[in-house]
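Quick one, T. Sequence first:
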Amino acid sequence: MLKSFYSDIDEVGTDEAGRGCLAGPVTAAAILLPEDFENDILNDSKQLSHSKRNSLLPILEKDCICCGVAHVYPEKIDEINILNASILAMHKAIESLDITPKFIIVDGNRFKSYKNIPHKSIVKGDSKYMSIAAASVLAKTYRDAYMEKLHEEFPMYNWKKNKGYPTREHREAILKYGTTKYHRKSFRLLPDQLTLEF
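Structure tokens:
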């Protein structure tokens, strides 16, 4: 059963999606849920089907007090590395909120303080706390939709299916067609940069 970290203050949850991808942005969301919010389906986005995530999206956006989503794109990822890009995306998502939170809970074990607002990093927080789970659903859903749009420009990589993750199909396409402006050049796009024998 998902819960709140605190029940008596404005607690924003934040999470990212796409950290391990070879192409596309890393996307983060931040969300403040009302104290009485309940949903039996809500869970870590990785535990939910595509259809369940999509059905949750309008519910979360309608019922939340406020939410925000932000992308950090490959050029910036290559410049500052994926960890810093993930944290930057979370900061941007929090910054886009209509209110300034009193407390931030973050999925994972790494975060940098945002405007000196108290925060807590929680390993597997997306499977424990409602606001982090909700943020994970928002981030994943928005990023998937973005990758589906990119698929129309570069269908040979099948991003509508693999969403930029390092599947064998995606890597075979990189080997055959090369990279695009959406690929993260600082990542090891092929196992040894030459062959797909892995």
